[in-house]
Amino acid sequence: MEAFINYILQFGNLNRQQIDLILNKATTLEFHKEDYFSEAGKVPRYVGFLLEGVVRFCYYNNKGEEITHSFVEENNFVSDQQRFEAQIISSEYIQAETVCKFLVFSKKDWDEIGNTIVGWKDIENLILKNCLLKAIERRSPLVSEDATNRYLLFNQHFPGLVNRVPLSHVASYLGITQQSLSRIRRNVR
Question: Any idea what the Cα angle at residue 47 is, between residues 44 and 50, rounded to 5°?
Fold first, then answer.
């Protein structure tokens, strides 16, 4: 809980009463490895703060191939925010890569926080902007790099993550085959 409070306080000031309100709206949920936090074809149910574990965002392309487009580690928000806010069907999956523990907020509770705490929407917008900038910062360099440098950048942005998630998902994120990833990992050591 402390990590969550410290995280949100980076984006604005909240008093003890406001923090208590937010925490009272939160529910702790655990997901097993490979469980879905959110699924394509369904309306996202939660905004979550990942207390423990790793999730990945993925989708299926027009060839039916599974594409991993991002990872999120503990102490970060996890949501399909646009579709959660609009309460429309998602086109991607958010899947637990490890056992995960979340603080989650239903749409009703999330809206109540926004309607009760003056300035919450500003905090929420800053959190969203921060999440987006992190994602862009991690993805953008991958576009122009060769496979080896993409792998090295991945390890720089996500230290130790390669040992926590399936290599097939890392390869998908990097846009290479698993065989190429194995070859690169052998050569980099």
Answer: 120
